[in-house]
Amino acid sequence: MKQKLVLIGNGMAGIRAIEELLKYDRELYDITVIGEEPHPNYNRIMLSPVLAGEKEIDDIILNSYDWYEENDITLITGDKASKINRINKSVETESGKIFNFDRLLIATGSIPFIIPVPGADKQGVIGFRDIADIETMIDFAKNTKKAVVIGGGLLGLEAANGLMKQGMDVTVVHLMDSLLERQLDTTASAMLKTSLVERGMKFLMEAQTAEILGDDKVHGVKFADGSNIDADLVVMAVGIRPNIELAQEAGLYCERGIVVNDTLQTYDPTIYAIGECVQHRNICYGLVAPLFDQAKVVANHLAMVGSSRYEGSITSTKLKVTGIDLFSAGEFNEEDGDDVLSLNDPSQGVYKKLVLQDNKIKGAVLYGDTLDGTWYFQLMREGTDISAFRSTILFGQHDIGDAGHGDPKVAALPPEAEICGCNGVCKGEIIDAIVKKGLFTLDEVRAHTKASSSCGSCTGLVESILASTVGEGYDEKPSKQPMCKCTEHSHDEVITAIRDQPQKSMPAVREALDWKTEDGCAACRPALNYYLLAHWPGEYQDDAQSRFINERAHGNIQKDGTYSVVPRMFGGLCTPNDLRAIADACEKYQVPEMKVTGGQRIDLFGVKKEDLPSMWKDLSEAGFVSGHAYGKAMRTVKTCAGKTWCRFGTQNSTGLGVQLEELTWGSWMPHKFKLAVSGCPRNCAEATIKDFGVVCVDSGYELHIGGNGGIKVRVTDLLCKVETEEQVLEYCGAFIQKYREEAHYLERTAPWVERVGLEYVKEAILEDSEQRKALYDRFKYSQKFAQIDPWKERAQGAESHEFTNLKIAG
Amino acid sequence: MSDWIQITQLKDIPVLGSRVIETETVRIALFRNSHDQVFALRDQCPHKQGPLSQGIVHGSTVTCPLHNWKIDLATGEALGPDEGCTHAYSCKVEEGKVYLKLPLEVANTAVARDCA
Ligand code: SRM
Ligand SMILES: Cc1cc2nc3c(=O)[nH]c(=O)nc-3n(C[C@H](O)[C@H](O)[C@H](O)COP(=O)(O)OP(=O)(O)OC[C@H]3O[C@@H](n4cnc5c(N)ncnc54)[C@H](O)[C@@H]3O)c2cc1C
Ligand code: SF4
Ligand code: FES
User: Fold this and answer.
1) ipTM over the 0.85 cut-off
2) Residue A479 contacts by C-beta under 8 Å, 6 or more apart in sequence?
3) What is the pTM of this model?
């Protein structure tokens, strides 16, 4: 028989947990949900836009009644759980229903705090929490004029804005001297107030409410200093209190909230609790992002997988008042020893402030232009060292709009503006999908619309659209990103396990790290295959079926299913005989198009798969090896004319390029890897946008790392200067090996260097010559196994099934 | 509908891999999963005709090499949220031999048939 799971609280945290649980296991439990509100689960965050008349209640339903039915969930609405009986494991409702449970999940949220002043119980005094409150407010707005909102925090300002939009005359009463004092520094707070006053909002600052005036209905508010104002409606938005009454009566240990551990268990191990009602490591959260993190973890335990822990969240906030952009996160009031970067342009209404400690972001406040909030927040959570781009960080993340996407102010874009160039998805389609299909995360938007699922350069734009459509707090990436849907583990955890445990085969990794799928998927298999190959060269047997087709067929697949062939031309040099052999092969195999590539060699397009081995045979006999133009591998070494011919050349850049290519060809990498050698600082080989670039100077060689010329252009960082060609080779090999061993699969050197920090890379390569040599030696060792030309092997019959079809009479 | 025809041996299809069968009218991809089950699909992705045989096989799914749609090997249906379907052919393994049931004389119509 199935076990019984009861959820008390049909709200955002609870239902998210059920959704996560269903992803693990649909059969484990009979699920009953008890909800006090007479509605299915809705998006509480969006109550503000509903009040402001920008959305309808119907738009904010997250799980329709059908959803409960489709998932065989018994839903009780409009009935309150009134008693938890821990001895016989049952929950009783106000209407007298009784539900037994094997496990219980409490997610009762919180209740608005109503200041206990005389008169607080009068008709017309309400909180701002649920649909019923909104309905009351809209009702009052129709029939009365004056509203007072007590509390100048996020909720209060959103309520005030909404009531103003409903036509009321609104005064915000705030105890402190600046608004949102917990979210903003004084500058941003003043800017916000000015802009709200311009919209017609009134403020009474430093005012302490003493009494609510009126008969049974509200007529006004009286303050501690004796003054008073008129009011027909008083909204109290001074804070929330975890809703713990039920848990407390059941004898579960509570402080401010229901106390839970890292697996979200209360003191009674069969009873779990998540959401605003809980207190975890002494914190009670009041935003959805942490609750969703909790939901994931609790689902993991309810599903008896039991492998994850909730360790707390860092949160950020955003105000949802249309036309006002405001973002804050972390500790934005500086302390001694912190650095502050700020940009203040009052005429444009833009203010940005970042608080740094040791070149890491500690806090951020953005006003007027919040597009980069997500980015700063991510840098903050990941503790990224920002020294490499500290001087430009305030101007924002450059890739947003970089690839010709135009105006980065997403909100201003018309619905037909193309957001994702790769998949031709426009803004309207994305919003449509988010609204109609109820999407919340970047992953979901990717899955449903394909936007941002290819090259990723529009990710920032899609995130902003998501944030502005569903409200902030939704798309927070968890601080630890799992590698893919098959596992909870991050790339780093997997790499560490492969290296240290050690794990030497794919099934062993999946077993040791509790993979959720038997064979992995198209995302994790190539990654695991690479990690194993990089760490255990010579031992690990490459798994062809875990490679993307390009690497399995050793050519780039074309849109019509044919392949391209790019023979390696070391350093871009070639002889008449080379060209003749290529020309012959082209004629023999009827290659429809030849092209000189951007990588200084020749691409032969449109070759039939069955012809590949024999074409490779011909090329191989003429001395060519594979150019790996298809692989997450070393691609090309671009060179310039150099000292041999060029009047400015300082060193033999071509010769050095050939040596580098001879050293590195065949090497598998986390992503593609490109090199270049320029003979002088005129830099004709574009060495400063390569993964590893050499710029020759009179006195030696400047070594540059982490450049990228593709989707997001990044100029290299200078690693160091060396004096001899041998040193160039050694430093290059060491750098490559560091990258090969530590970068995440599909992470090029540019984002890798930005993630781990230039200083970290420099330390590994420059500081200790022993360590550098060891890296270089490991690289050379792995090259022993990698420099076996895959084309030649296949021309001689390896993997022949890949290239021959089965035939039957038609 | 014709009878079962032997196409190949199980061992000639790599585990988690595929082989392609060409007939005069249609290319069929034969897939083998990690439980030695074999599936046959028309080698054409419902998205933009990508060659499914060249994709990565996992579970009972293949991921198309061109734009990563996931196709159910048993039914030929695209997995949500994508929508589309490619023809699935009957297929069985007996004593290490792989058999396919092909409506040969109507290969064309079979392919064109609505597979919903
Ligand atoms: C053939 C070539 C274009 C040309 O005719 O010049 C080319 C063709 C492709 N490039 Fe490229 N890239 C070519 C030079 C470049 C360059 C220029 C360079 O290397 O000097 C760049 C920018 C420099 C860089 O990488 O930093 C470049 C940046 C990209 C990117 C973006 C990479 C990035 O990190 O932003 C992709 C997409 C990817 O890798 O995910 C890409 C992907 C591709 C793919 C493999 C698309 C695909 O996945 O199927 C194209 C395959 C064509 C085919 O069927 O053979 N190609 N590609 C060039 C081959 C060079 C070679 O000889 O190996
Ligand atoms: C107007 C407004 C705007 C907000 N804006 C944002 C924002 O922009 N960003 C953000 O991150 N967060 C925002 N929040 C906060 C966010 O909505 C909450 O953090 C989130 O809803 C909490 O989820 P929960 O499941 O813990 O509680 P809830 O969503 O409140 O769910 C609890 C449910 O349990 C029910 N319940 C309680 N007791 C019982 C009982 N005994 N029996 C049966 N049912 C019971 C309640 O009726 C309620 O439906 C906003 C909140 C409000 C009110
Ligand atoms: S060759 Fe490169 S730039 Fe050209 S279409 Fe293909 S991926 Fe895009
Ligand atoms: S053709 Fe298969 S996913 Fe596009």
Assistant:
1) no
2) A313, A314, A381, A382
3) 0.58
